[in-house]
Design brief:
heterodimer, A: alpha+beta, Dipeptide-binding Protein, domain 3, seven-stranded mixed beta sheet, globular, B: mainly alpha, MetI-like fold, 2 domains, 12 helices, about 80% helix, transport (chain B), transmembrane helix (chain B)
Chain lengths: ~575, ~325
């Protein structure tokens, strides 16, 4: 009798455990393989029914983050995620408008001296920290001095020295001068004066970069070493207040700041960040209504591309192939380089392989991040260099044969190194296929490796072709063109051209730097040299495929500095 | 008679103490060796913890100087070990800049241990039941089913279970949350714990079955049955108890497997545990975090092995004698 009872118990336990694991696992895996359009439809239906439930917990915007925040200390942070969260609760002197232009934020008005070397910022009277203290010019002085302090060793100190050209910044970084000698002074509580070495045409647009955000010294010192590691150790002067955070957190929450000077503009009651590092989990969370926006991985694009919520957001990154011109004899031949760049079908890469809205690019500076004195995009004209950079299989073959002849060979084997990530792997395979198909006698060998290793090998010149990318640090073509001067650590091909170096120097610290439109056209001349010599083979300007719920509007996306701004965002 | 027993107990105590002491000392040196190897391996990793692309040589040098990474590896190692004994594991260079690692781990280790403990419990319990069922219903359809489940559990990696369970029970059926949530720790730990428990469950089931079959066929079971003992008593007092001894020993390596499985599963469910922290740290060359977490993992591994060895020695004196002979 008892034996019988036991066996029944065991049997039912077995049955239960089977429902719990075995069967579901098998069906789950098989369904996963062909996630079809049908499934997306049903998911949308699910979404429609679950949004109501979501609303009961408030109107907070639920945003997916790909990576955790690295640091909320504005002078220590370097990554897009950290910048975005810092900017949610901190205003700089300037902020970005929807088009990425610098507009006044904490600065009420700005006086620029005639020689362009002195900027005087007048700070708003109604700008306050969340502890009630007013935001003062001294807060900026303290923060900027931290940014160049060798003891702080900020990774973005070059924003003040190389890029911002603030007086004495470089000497302080090098330890030659004391940080108190930085060219920034608090004239009075609300007046900040900044002195530059040379006129910097894009200086105001640097002011929305978190490295330049203010820090209240008294508060900073009261936190000792724990500054910006918890809601209690951060101060807000912006649209939101941080109320849930811990280092490397997977969830972060911010609530609207009622004391913000521009509080009427802010419609969201709060922001809810969720870190999700698995793309399937992210998509399912979006589809079940737990997220209002999510990043879509390359393989998922087909599944969701007809969804009205699907959007391609410009990420600013230029992907390009860098040939090692110094070390590889074959790549020193400019005809070989022309042949390669013209054999690349960039359209096919973006439309057939990436499918995320990325744009084919035929210029050394990517599109849509740097607007000139007349307000137009630096790289709007993609046919500017069509003589030397286009897709033209016939011309490619011609250059190829000429190059082979000059080298006295009939066959070439070139290796290309690339990151072991989703997109670069796929792009590298297509590049290999396109080059080998068009250029007979060419073999491209691919080597994939972790990004850190790839970057190191390129910096040390241990490569032939390298598939790489570069994101803009500030809204000026110089963030790209500055890379190819002699001995720059990102001039992977070790290319060197005196004329080019001269133009870049002239545009950075010379006479031309004073004249915005002359500088603009000189930068075009520099880009022309890079393209004429095929120093790099540009591929595409990256877009991120995102799903943004149709009930959400007003999120501003930017390829530079602050990737997403929520000040005008609303959710119905 | 009593006299002899007392003597035996006394000698057991002394021998045991010596054995334990020897094992503990070995464990400490093993851990030091692991830390040194980790230091050397870290040095060999390409790139730095810092933003390699955007920094020039002098900036990188400044950062290396700030964190003492410019010193010879041996000096770094000794500094690290000395600080470690003071309870200072250094700060993170990248994934959570300048945060003390002890602080990072303090909030995360309990979460990982919680999920891991749930996984072991679920796995061991269900595995045991499955194994018993298979043994008692040997060569029936139940046995085959239990075997099939075991094979699936052993061969399918935990992250596949994680994604499948999340899809079925999180997304389709909406029974459990898909992501870890601090507001609903219990509910949101179900899917990760179950995914992690699969391997344990399957291994225990297979082991229990084999052991039970062996025990059930042994002479003393025949004796017990011929004494006229009832079914229940035979199963629990004699068969199960004897079968459990070897099962306890396999549980230890399974707990360790669980820790490695948790690396991926934590990432999938966005669990703020040490596993996901380690994955992120490795990807960004965050030396101190990698070393500290690897050290903790190694210490746990060695600790578990030590406990099991000692327990095993206590349970079965033959082992202790054999080891002493080494």
């Amino acid at each position: 009798m008892k034996k019988k009872f036991l066996s029944i118990m065991l049997a039912s336990a077995l049955a239960l455990s089977m429902i719990g694991c075995g069967s579901s696992a098998v069906s789950g895996v098989s369904e996963q393989k062909d996630t079809t359009a049908e499934e997306t439809d049903s998911a949308q239906a699910d979404n429609a029914t679950t949004t109501d439930a979501g609303e009961s917990s408030g109107e907070d915007l639920n945003v997916m983050l790909e990576t955790p925040v690295e640091s909320l200390d504005p002078q220590q942070a370097t990554d897009g995620t950290s910048f975005e969260v810092i900017a949610d609760y901190t205003d700089g002197l300037m902020q970005m408008d929807a088009d990425g232009q610098a507009v006044n934020a904490l600065a009420e008005s700005i006086d620029v001296s005639e020689d362009g070397l002195t900027y005087t910022f007048h700070i708003r009277e109604d700008a306050n920290w969340s502890n009630g203290e007013p935001v003062t010019a001294a807060d900026f002085v303290f923060a900027w001095q931290r940014a160049v302090d060798p003891e702080v060793a900020s990774e973005y100190s070059y924003m003040l020295s190389d890029i911002g050209q603030i007086v004495n910044a470089q000497d302080i970084i090098d330890g030659a001068k004391d940080k108190s000698e930085l060219g920034v002074t608090a004239v009075d509580d609300k007046t900040l004066e900044v002195k530059l070495n040379v006129p910097v045409s894009y200086f105001l647009s640097l002011m929305y970069f978190p490295t330049f955000y203010p820090v209240n010294q008294a508060f900073f010192e009261s936190c000792a070493d724990t500054y910006a590691t918890s809601p209690e150790t951060t101060l807000s002067n912006g649209a939101f207040v941080l109320d849930d955070y811990q280092p490397a957190a997977t969830t972060i929450h911010l609530t609207k700041n009622p004391d913000y000077y521009d509080a009427d503009r802010v419609k969201l009651p709060g922001l809810n960040y969720q870190v999700i590092q698995d793309s399937q989990q992210a998509l399912m969370s979006y589809q079940s209504g737990d997220l209002d926006t999510t990043l879509v991985n390359g393989e998922q694009v087909d599944q969701v591309k007809d969804d009205p919520a699907f959007k391609a957001i410009g990420a600013g990154y230029l992907w390009y192939i860098s040939p090692n011109i110094q070390e590889v004899k074959e790549l020193q031949n400019v005809n070989i380089r022309y042949a390669i760049t013209m054999a690349l079908n960039r359209e096919a890469i973006t439309t057939d392989v990436l499918k995320d809205g990325s744009a084919p690019t035929y210029t050394a500076v990517p599109m849509d991040f740097a607007a000139g004195p007349d307000g137009s995009d630096f790289s709007a004209d993609q046919e500017k260099f069509k003589e030397v950079c286009r897709y033209d299989a016939d011309a490619a073959v011609e250059y190829w044969n000429k190059g082979l002849e000059e080298l006295g060979v009939t066959e070439l084997t070139i290796t290309m190194i690339h990151d072991a990530d989703d997109a670069p792997i796929k792009v590298a395979q297509v590049v290999k296929e396109q080059l080998e198909t068009t250029l007979s006698g060419l073999t491209v060998e691919l080597q994939q490796m972790p990004k850190k290793e790839r970057v190191q090998r390129m910096q040390e010149g241990e490569f032939e072709l390298g598939l790489t990318r570069w994101g803009p640090d500030y809204a000026d073509p110089m963030t790209y063109l500055g890379m190819w001067v002699t001995n720059n650590s990102n001039n992977y091909g070790f290319w060197s051209n005196k004329d080019y170096d001269a133009i870049i120097a002239e545009c950075t610290t010379g006479e031309t730097a004073m004249d915005a439109s002359a500088r603009w056209s000189a930068l075009y001349d520099a880009e022309q040299i890079v393209m004429d010599e095929a120093v790099i083979f540009p591929l595409y300007t990256q877009c991120n495929a995102e799903l943004i719920s149709t009930s959400v509007s007003g999120i501003e996306f930017h390829p530079v500095a602050l990737n997403r701004v929520y000040k005008d965002a609303s959710k119905n | 008679m009593i006299h002899y027993f007392f003597l035996a107990l006394l000698s057991f105590g002394v021998a045991m103490k010596k054995y334990v002491l020897k094992r503990v000392i070995t464990a400490i040196f093993t851990l030091l060796a692991i830390t040194l190897i980790l230091f050397i391996l870290m040095q060999l990793m390409p790139g730095s913890p810092f933003n390699d692309e955007k920094l020039n040589e002098s900036q990188r040098a400044a950062l290396y100087a700030k964190y003492g990474l410019d010193k010879p590896i041996v000096i770094q190692f000794f500094h690290y070990v000395i600080n470690m004994f003071k309870g200072d594991l250094g700060v993170s260079y990248k994934i959570s800049k300048n945060t003390p690692i002890t602080q990072l781990i303090a909030s995360r280790l309990p979460i990982s241990i919680g999920v891991g403990f749930a996984a072991v419990s679920i796995g061991a319990l269900i595995g045991l039941l499955l194994g018993l069922l298979a043994a008692f219903k040997r060569d029936t359809v139940w046995d085959t089913l239990a075997t099939v489940i075991s094979v699936i559990g052993v061969s399918v990696p935990s992250y596949v279970f994680a994604l499948a369970l999340s899809y079925q029970f999180g997304f389709k059926l909406d029974w459990f949350p898909m992501l870890f949530s601090a507001k609903d720790v219990l509910g949101s730990s179900v899917l990760p714990s179950v995914s992690l428990s699969m391997f344990t469950m399957a291994s225990i089931a297979r082991f229990t079955r084999a052991e039970m079959i062996e025990v059930l066929g042994s002479d003393y079971m025949l004796l017990a049955e011929s004494k006229g003992l009832s079914g229940n008593k035979i199963v629990f007092a004699h068969a199960l108890r004897n079968a459990l001894i070897p099962i306890i020993t396999v549980l230890a390596p399974l707990v360790v497997d669980l820790m490695t499985g948790s690396l991926v599963v934590e990432k999938i469910f966005s669990i703020p545990g040490v596993g996901s922290l380690l994955v992120n740290a490795i990807q960004s060359n965050d030396y101190n975090v990698v070393i500290a977490l690897s050290f903790i993992y190694s210490a746990m591994y060695i600790g578990i092995m030590l406990v099991v060895d000692i327990l095993y020695g206590v349970i079965d004196p033959r082992i202790r004698v054999a080891k002493e002979g080494d």
